C-alpha cells in the first residue's frame, strides 16, 4: 500500500511540474518589432520640430516600433554618410528628408536596391527609386497664396516676394506656383524679390530698401511664417504695418507661429503647409505591415485667416489635449501590464501551491483511513454542530426581536411621512395663496407705477429750471420706478410659468445672430466701466428652433448679473458652440467677478433668495429663478460653476430640435435689442437697466405738430405704446424723418413754413422715407381737403378734434398692415421689386442690389461699405431695409449671393470652390452651409438635380 502511495505521489508531482511548465510557456506572443531609420536634413526651426513631434505622437501608439533619427544639419555630404550608416544598421525601412536632391540620390538608390523600403518626406530626390512619398505640393502652396492675394487686393496691387534659401526645393516650388498663378491677375505686380534664410532674421536692409523704393507696395508674400514675422517687425518700424498685408506659409499652432500671428493680426493669413510627421509614420507602418498604401501622398493645404483661425486654434488645442490624455492612458496601460505580469506570476505560484496541497491532502486522506480515532472526531464534530445549532436558535430569537423593532420603526416612519405630506400640502396651499397675492398685487401696482412714471418723465424732459439736486432726485425716482416695474413683470412671468400659461412659440433661426444682438446691447454699459465684453461663436451659423421672446429674458438676466458682479476693468465672455454631438447648443456666460460662496450654491436658483453679495447692491432674488424656469420651459438646462474670487460661469444647454407642439404656426420675430438703436440700456455705476420706452416697444413714431400742447399730448398718448420723437415744424420734422427713419409719422397739416402736405410730398420723393406710413391731422374737414391729403400720399386723414383711442387703434392697424407687407417681401426676397409699394422704394432696392452685385466678390463687404456707397448712415440703411423687407442688410447681401449661386451652379465648368470665392464667401465649407440652410440641399445636390432634369 505504501509503495502504491509513493508511486501515486511521484506521478502527481510530475503532473504538477508539467502544468507549471505549460503555464510558464503560455505567455502571449510578442508582436514583431520594426526598426525605422530617419535621415533628417535639419531639426532647426519650428516646422522641422513639428514634423518630429508628429512622428513621436504617432509612434506612441506603436511601442514595438523603434525610430533612429540622424540630423545632418543641412549638410548634404553628411546626410549621404548617415544614410549609409542607417543601411548598415539593419533597418527595416528608411525615411529620408533630403536637404538637396542630387547629392543624396545615389545613397537612396542603394538602399532601394538592397530591398529596404524608402519613404521620401517633404522633399524628393532626383530619382524614381523610392517606395512612397509624403509631403505637400510647394507649387500648390504658391498658387494658393497668389489666389488669396488677388482676392485680398481685388486683383490690383504691388507685391514683394520674400524668398527662402536659394537652391531649396521648397523655395523654387513656392516661387514657381506663385508666379504661375499671378499670370491670371495682370493687375498684380511683383515689384521686388528679397532672399531670406527661413528665419525671422530677414535681410533688414534689403527689405527696407525695397519698401522705401516702392511706397505703393500693399502686400508681402513670405515663403514661411518665420520670415513673415520678421517682415512685420520691419513694416512696423517703418510705420506701414497697417498699410501692408503679409501672407506667410506653414500655419503652425505653436507659440509665436502662424495661427497665433493671424490671431494677433500681425499676418493677414498663413498658408497651411503640413509637416507630415504622422502621415509618414502611418504610411511606413502600412508598408512594413504589407498593407495597401498610396505611393504618392500629397498633403492638402488651405488658407488660415481671420475667418477660420479661431476654429483652427480650437482644433489644435483639442488635439494637444487628446494627445495628453493618450499619453496618460498609455502610462496607465503600462502600469496595468506590469501589474498583470506580477499577478500572473503570483497566480502560477498559487496554482503550484494548490496542486501540492492537493497531493498532500490525498496522502493525508489515505493515511486517515487507517486512523482509529475517526469516530472520536465525528463525535466531537457532532458536539460542535449541536453548539452551532443552539447559537443559530439564539440568533433567530434575536432576529425576531429586531424584526419587531423594525416593524415599529416602519409604523413611526409612515406616520411621519403622512405628517410631512400634510405639511407639504399646507405649504403648497400657502405658496399658491402667496403667488395669487403677489400676482394680484403686481397687477394693482402697474397702474400707479405708470401714473408715477409718466409725470416724472415729463418733469425730466423739462428740467431746465430744476437744480442739479432736484434732477438727481427725479432720476432716482425714475430708475427705482423702472426697477419696480421690472420686478412686477418678473413676478407676472413667474406666475405664468407656475400656472402653465406661458407657452413656447419657437421658430427656426440662427442662434449666433440672436445672441450677438443681445451681447451688443451690453457693449456700451460695459465700456462705461471698462469691462471687456467678448463674444465667441464656434461657427458663424448655428441653426436651432427657439423662442426669442423667452430666451431674450434668460440671456438678459445672465448678462445683467455678470455685469453687476464683475468689477471695473474685468472681463465677461459669452461663448456659443455645439454640444451633445451636435444635437444641442450651449451658451455660456463667464465673468471675472467675486464668484459664488459654498453656502449660496444650493440656493442660487430659489425664488427671492439673496446670498452674500458683498459690496454689490442686492437684487430681488428673482432673476436667476426666472431664467431657470424659462430655460426648463424651453426644454433646456441652466447650470453654473464658480470659483470664489475668480468668477462664475452660467451655461444654458438648448436642444436644437423642439416638438411640433412648441413650434410657432407663423414666423414670429423675437424681440431683442437692435444694434442700430442709440441707447439700448440705461446704466447706473454698477447695475445695467432697460428704460421703459425701450422695454415697451422698438417701434418709433415721429410727431410733427407746431402747437406745443397738442404735440405734448400726442407724445404722451403714443408714448404708452411706442417710442416717440417730436418736432414742432415741418422742416425739422422732415430732417428728423431722414435721420431717424421712423416706423410711422403723425403730422399736422396747417404749419408755418412747410405744410403737412408738403412734408408728405417730400417724404414720398425721398427713398429713405418713401415707405413710412403717414397720419395727417387737421382742422380742415371738408371732403375735398381730405381727398387732397390722401392724394398727397397720406395713409390716414383725421380731423380735429379726434378720439385718442381711435388714433391709437388706427396707428396699430397701419403698423400691422405694413408688418404683413414687409413679411411678404422678406419671404419673396430677390432682385424682383415689382411688388414694392412705391416707385421710390423700387428704385432704392434696385440701387441697393446693384451695389451688392458690383461688390459681390468681396469677402469683407460690410454694411458700412454699402451705406457709404448709397451716401447714408448705417442706421438709416438698416432701418430702411428693415422697414421695406423686414430683414437685415447682412441677410439681404447673403440672399443676393445665394440667388447668384443658383445661376452659377448651372455652369458645369465652374467648381463649387470657385463659385464660393467668386461670390465672396470666405471658404467653400461656409458657402455649402449657407446654401443648405437657405435651400435645404447642398450645392452639389442642387447641381446634380439640375443635371438630371436637363437629361
Automatic annotation (TrEMBL):
Residues 700-815 form the Response regulatory domain. Keywords: Coiled coil, DNA-binding, Membrane, Phosphoprotein, Signal, Transcription, Transcription regulation, Transmembrane, Transmembrane helix. The chain crosses the membrane at residues 345-365. Residues 1-28 form the signal peptide. Residues 440-658 form the Histidine kinase domain. It comes from the Bacteria. PROSITE patterns: HIS_KIN (PS50109), HTH_ARAC_FAMILY_1 (PS00041), HTH_ARAC_FAMILY_2 (PS01124), PROKAR_LIPOPROTEIN (PS51257), RESPONSE_REGULATORY (PS50110). Gene3D superfamilies: 1.10.287.130, 3.40.50.2300, Histidine kinase-like ATPase, C-terminal domain, Homeodomain-like. Its EC number is 2.7.13.3. The modification 4-aspartylphosphate is found at residue 748. SUPFAM superfamilies: ATPase domain of HSP90 chaperone/DNA topoisomerase II/histidine kinase, CheY-like, Homeodomain-like, Homodimeric domain of signal transducing histidine kinase, Periplasmic binding protein-like I. Residues 846-945 form the HTH araC/xylS-type domain. It catalyses: ATP + protein L-histidine = ADP + protein N-phospho-L-histidine. Residues 378-430 form a coiled coil. Pfam families: HATPase_c, HisKA, HTH_18, Peripla_BP_4, Response_reg. SMART domains: HATPase_c, HisKA, HTH_ARAC, REC. It is an enzyme of class 2 (transferase). This is histidine kinase. It comes from Hymenobacter negativus. The lineage of its organism: Bacteria, Pseudomonadati, Bacteroidota, Cytophagia, Cytophagales.
Amino acid at each position: 500500500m505504501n509503495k502504491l502511495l509513493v508511486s501515486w505521489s511521484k506521478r502527481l508531482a510530475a503532473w504538477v511540474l508539467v502544468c507549471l511548465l505549460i503555464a510558464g510557456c503560455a505567455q502571449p506572443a510578442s508582436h514583431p518589432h520594426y526598426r525605422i531609420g530617419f535621415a533628417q536634413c535639419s531639426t532647426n526651426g519650428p516646422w522641422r520640430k513639428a514634423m518630429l513631434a508628429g512622428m513621436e505622437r504617432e509612434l506612441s501608439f506603436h511601442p514595438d516600433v523603434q525610430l533612429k533619427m540622424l540630423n545632418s544639419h543641412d549638410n548634404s555630404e553628411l546626410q549621404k554618410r548617415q544614410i549609409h550608416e542607417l543601411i548598415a544598421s539593419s533597418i527595416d525601412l528608411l525615411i529620408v528628408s533630403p536637404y538637396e536632391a542630387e547629392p543624396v540620390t545615389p545613397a537612396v538608390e542603394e538602399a532601394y536596391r538592397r530591398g529596404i523600403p524608402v519613404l521620401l518626406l517633404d522633399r524628393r530626390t532626383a530619382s524614381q527609386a523610392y517606395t512612397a512619398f509624403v509631403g505637400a505640393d510647394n507649387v500648390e502652396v504658391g498658387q494658393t497664396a497668389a489666389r488669396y492675394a488677388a482676392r485680398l487686393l481685388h486683383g490690383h496691387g504691388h507685391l514683394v516676394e520674400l524668398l527662402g534659401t536659394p537652391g531649396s526645393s521648397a523655395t523654387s516650388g513656392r516661387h514657381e506656383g506663385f508666379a504661375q498663378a499671378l499670370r491670371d491677375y495682370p493687375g498684380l505686380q511683383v515689384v521686388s524679390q528679397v532672399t531670406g534664410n527661413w528665419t525671422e532674421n530677414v535681410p533688414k536692409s534689403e527689405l527696407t530698401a525695397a519698401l522705401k523704393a516702392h511706397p505703393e507696395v500693399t502686400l508681402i508674400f513670405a515663403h514661411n511664417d518665420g520670415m513673415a514675422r520678421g517682415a512685420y517687425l520691419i513694416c512696423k518700424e517703418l510705420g506701414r504695418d497697417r498699410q501692408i498685408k503679409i501672407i506667410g506659409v506653414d500655419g503652425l499652432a505653436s507659440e509665436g507661429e502662424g495661427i497665433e500671428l493671424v490671431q494677433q493680426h500681425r499676418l493677414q493669413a498663413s498658408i497651411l503647409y503640413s509637416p507630415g510627421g504622422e502621415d509618414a509614420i502611418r504610411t511606413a507602418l502600412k508598408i512594413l505591415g504589407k498593407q495597401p498604401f498610396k505611393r504618392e501622398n500629397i498633403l492638402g493645404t488651405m488658407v488660415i485667416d481671420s475667418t477660420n483661425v479661431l476654429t483652427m486654434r480650437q482644433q489644435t488645442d483639442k488635439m494637444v489635449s487628446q494627445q495628453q490624455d493618450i499619453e496618460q492612458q498609455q502610462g496607465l496601460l503600462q502600469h496595468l501590464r506590469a501589474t498583470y505580469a506580477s499577478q500572473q506570476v503570483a497566480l502560477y505560484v498559487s496554482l503550484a501551491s494548490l496542486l501540492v496541497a492537493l497531493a498532500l491532502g490525498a496522502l493525508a486522506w489515505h493515511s486517515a483511513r487507517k486512523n482509529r480515532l475517526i469516530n472520536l472526531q465525528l463525535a466531537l464534530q457532532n458536539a460542535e454542530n449541536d453548539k452551532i445549532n443552539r447559537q443559530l436558535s439564539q440568533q433567530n430569537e434575536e432576529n425576531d426581536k429586531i424584526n419587531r423593532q423594525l416593524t415599529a420603526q416602519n409604523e413611526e416612519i409612515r406616520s411621519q411621512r403622512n405628517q410631512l405630506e400634510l405639511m407639504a400640502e399646507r405649504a403648497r396651499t400657502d405658496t399658491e395663496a402667496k403667488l395669487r397675492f403677489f400676482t394680484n398685487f403686481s397687477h394693482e401696482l402697474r397702474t400707479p407705477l405708470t401714473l408715477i412714471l409718466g409725470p416724472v418723465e415729463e418733469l425730466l424732459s423739462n428740467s431746465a429750471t430744476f437744480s442739479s439736486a432736484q434732477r438727481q432726485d427725479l432720476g432716482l425716482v425714475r430708475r427705482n420706478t423702472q426697477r419696480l416695474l421690472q420686478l412686477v413683470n418678473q413676478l407676472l412671468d413667474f406666475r405664468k410659468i407656475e400656472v402653465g400659461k406661458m407657452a413656447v412659440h419657437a421658430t427656426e433661426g440662427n442662434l449666433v445672430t440672436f445672441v450677438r444682438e443681445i451681447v451688443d446691447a451690453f457693449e456700451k454699459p460695459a465700456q462705461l466701466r471698462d469691462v471687456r465684453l467678448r463674444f465667441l461663436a464656434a461657427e458663424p451659423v448655428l441653426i436651432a428652433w427657439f423662442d426669442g421672446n423667452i430666451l431674450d429674458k434668460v440671456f438678459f438676466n445672465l448678462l445683467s448679473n455678470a455685469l453687476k458682479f464683475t468689477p471695473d476693468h474685468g472681463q465677461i465672455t459669452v461663448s456659443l458652440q455645439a454640444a451633445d454631438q451636435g444635437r444641442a447648443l450651449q451658451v455660456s456666460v463667464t465673468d471675472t467677478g467675486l464668484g459664488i460662496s459654498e453656502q449660496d450654491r444650493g440656493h442660487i436658483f430659489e425664488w427671492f433668495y439673496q446670498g452674500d453679495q458683498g459690496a454689490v447692491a442686492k437684487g430681488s432674488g428673482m432673476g436667476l429663478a426666472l431664467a431657470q424656469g424659462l430655460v426648463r420651459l424651453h426644454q433646456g438646462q441652466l447650470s453654473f460653476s464658480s470659483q470664489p474670487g475668480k468668477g462664475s460661469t452660467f451655461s444654458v444647454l438648448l436642444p436644437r430640435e423642439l416638438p411640433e407642439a412648441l413650434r410657432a404656426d407663423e414666423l414670429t420675430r423675437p424681440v431683442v435689442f437692435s444694434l442700430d438703436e442709440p441707447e439700448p440700456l440705461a446704466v447706473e455705476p454698477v447695475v445695467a437697466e432697460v428704460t421703459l420706452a425701450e422695454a415697451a416697444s422698438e417701434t418709433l413714431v415721429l410727431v410733427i405738430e407746431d402747437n406745443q400742447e397738442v404735440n405734448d399730448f400726442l407724445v404722451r398718448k403714443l408714448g404708452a405704446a411706442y417710442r416717440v420723437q417730436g418736432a414742432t415744424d415741418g422742416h425739422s420734422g422732415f430732417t428728423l424723418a431722414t435721420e431717424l427713419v421712423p416706423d410711422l409719422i403723425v403730422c399736422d397739416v396747417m404749419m408755418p413754413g412747410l405744410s403737412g402736405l408738403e412734408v408728405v410730398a417730400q417724404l414720398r420723393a425721398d427713398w429713405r422715407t418713401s415707405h413710412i406710413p403717414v397720419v395727417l391731422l387737421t382742422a380742415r374737414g371738408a371732403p375735398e381737403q381730405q381727398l387732397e391729403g390722401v392724394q398727397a400720399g397720406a395713409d390716414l386723414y383725421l380731423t380735429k378734434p379726434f378720439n385718442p383711442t381711435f388714433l391709437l387703434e388706427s396707428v396699430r392697424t397701419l403698423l400691422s398692415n405694413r408688418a404683413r407687407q414687409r413679411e411678404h417681401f422678406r419671404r419673396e426676397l430677390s432682385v424682383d421689386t415689382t411688388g414694392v409699394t412705391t416707385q421710390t422704394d423700387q428704385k432704392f432696392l434696385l440701387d441697393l442690389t446693384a451695389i451688392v452685385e458690383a461688390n459681390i466678390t468681396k469677402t469683407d463687404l460690410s454694411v458700412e461699405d454699402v451705406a457709404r456707397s448709397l451716401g447714408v448712415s448705417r442706421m438709416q440703411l438698416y432701418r430702411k431695409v428693415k422697414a421695406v423687407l423686414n430683414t437685415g442688410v447682412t441677410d439681404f447681401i447673403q440672399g443676393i449671393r445665394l440667388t447668384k449661386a443658383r445661376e452659377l451652379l448651372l455652369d458645369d465648368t465652374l467648381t463649387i470652390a470657385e463659385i464660393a470665392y467668386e461670390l465672396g464667401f470666405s471658404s467653400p465649407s461656409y458657402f455649402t452651409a449657407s446654401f443648405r440652410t437657405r435651400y435645404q440641399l447642398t450645392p452639389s445636390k442642387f447641381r446634380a438635380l439640375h443635371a438630371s432634369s436637363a437629361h
